Automatic annotation (TrEMBL):
Residues 11-98 form the DUF7967 domain. This is DUF7967 domain-containing protein. It comes from Halobellus rubicundus. InterPro entries: DUF7967 (IPR058273). Pfam families: DUF7967. Residues 46-59 have a biased composition (Polar residues). Residues 65-76 have a biased composition (Acidic residues).
Length: 98
């Protein structure tokens, strides 16, 4: 685990990795970024039109304020998110677009 991978309890932000991305029929993208242990997530919904206009892609990881994280209460979902974080971390650098 490198410096950016630490889940330091004193840090204001934590690195979260993309674990889910869903496109809606309303032109939106729902993204879920999870902590490495899958226990906390940040959900984000973005318009595909706005992403295109701003030239934004979807990065493999983002830094999230601890106060903006939600708990994952379901054990199965938490384990699935942790496994997906591991898979994404192995294949991408944090700033890579995926």
């Amino acid at each position: 685990m490198d410096e950016g991978e630490r889940d330091d309890d004193d840090a204001e932000t934590v690195r979260c990795w993309l674990v889910e991305r869903t496109y809606t029929d309303r032109g939106l993208v729902d993204m879920v970024y999870a902590t490495p242990d899958g226990a906390r997530v940040r959900r984000k919904q973005v318009s595909t039109t706005v992403m295109r206009q701003r030239g934004q892609g979807t990065s493999a990881a983002v830094e999230v304020d601890r106060d903006d994280l939600e708990s994952v209460d379901d054990d199965e979902t938490r384990e699935r998110y942790a496994a997906e974080v591991e898979r994404v971390r192995e294949q991408y650098d944090p700033d890579d677009e995926i």
